[in-house]
Amino acid sequence: MQRLRLRLRRTPPPPTGTRTLIVGAGAAGRTLARDLMRNPEYGLTLLGHLDDDARKRRVNRLPVLGPLSALADTVRAERIDVVVVAIPSMPPVELAALVREAVRSGARVRYLPSFHAAVQRDSRGGDLMAVAPAALLGRDEVHVVRPTTRATVRDRRVLVTGAGGSIGSELCRQIRSYGPSALYMLDHDESNLHSLQLEISGAALLDTDELLVADIRDRSRMRQIFAELRPQVVFHAAAHKHLPLLERHPCEGVKSNVLGTQHLVDAAVEHGTERFILISTDKAAAPTSVLGATKRLAELIVASRAGGRTAVGSVRFGNVLGSRGSFLHVLAHQIAAHEPVTITDPDVDRFFMTVEEAVGLVLEAGAMAEDGETFVLDMGQPVRIVSLVESYAAQVGATDVDIRFTGLRPGEKLNEALFSDSEDRTPTAHPRISATLGPALPDDFEDGLHALYAAAEANAAQEVRARLTRVVPEYTPPALAVPAASGLFDAPYPDGF
């Protein structure tokens, strides 16, 4: 196993000048402001506070710009980038309303810990420190949601599947602020739904029609939901997405990523949904993994439903910085715990984007999709993982990072692509988004799907891999499968399979 030790000079990066407003001028707000001003490496430019106490005019040399009710006006007037909520005791309903107001005004929101956490550890700037995305991406963030795009969901009944996940929850947050007539949030995990409703509504009684506990594998349940709720716009984010797990469990990947997608898009077409958008991955371009192959097949299924009343399309993007279970999430944990950072290969690179960029792309695609296109954001050049570790370590002040190289796992690529060699890349109405149309499907495509589903239902992993190569011709699996364990897996498939 190769190893690399990074020794970084403790030189703070240049400030990014992120214009910041602190909500609250009490003890927590004062402590926070003092700490942030002492640490310019956070890259924040503090503009002032908001507080309902009219007697407070200036705190730590920062002005109190008005009461909390002046949030929207202050964000616009001062061109605020980030609003930091420093009132740990704020009731959840008021906090949710404040967050929605900040987002509508164009600002991001950060929080201090909850009251109990603040008692256990001082409310300090370290609790809020967020890495500047541009420094890790190697480019500026792309803000793709145009005002006209928001009309796609305004006054519409919108359904988001996988609503409790990283992309699904951000979709729900943004869509909710654009004024849909109804927002239905579907997930098979009730805990995810509970957390999501608490965050965006300020309460989580779990007794409203907007929450749907359901499994996309259940065809009759999906048809029931569409028949009763008649969603006009659907964003399908539910999926199995962890590549190594799907290499070991390919049948589960087919059941969720392929069959589940077909259940949804067929129900959408049957019940007159206006728009259906699939969330895909760059691993679907020239796939070498079960994850990539199943998502590519999902793209093909969605595209095959084009031509009717329902506009359909897919969105393909790379790794999302900060999403649950993402590399950055693991990296932050490893560095904070002073553990070795694990990377597969010194030369591995990936395309990265922020969750805001990803959701912006999804919403833009929702507005542009017509004929089953797959949309891809221009994400600049891929980022070497080693470089990302170096940038992150520098921003958080980690001066001694131990990197261990573990080797590529089955199905993983050294370098990802956004389009395969057989796909034509065409421009769209948005200058930073390109699109491609899938190939004409063979006459026996549906027969191949049925055979694949039968193999998955029988939990025949070997046969599922074989049938994936037939319905997704560009899929080139690794030469050998993951070794069997405990008798639960088929034997490795032969070279050249």
UniProtKB/TrEMBL annotation:
Polysaccharide biosynthesis protein CapD-like domain location: 158-434
Gene3D superfamilies per UniProt: NAD(P)-binding Rossmann-like Domain
InterPro entries the UniProt entry points to: NAD(P)-bd_dom_sf (IPR036291), Polysac_CapD-like (IPR003869), Polysaccharide_Synthase-Rel (IPR051203)
Protein family: Belongs to the polysaccharide synthase family.
Name assigned to this protein: Polysaccharide biosynthesis protein
Natural source organism: Pseudonocardia acidicola
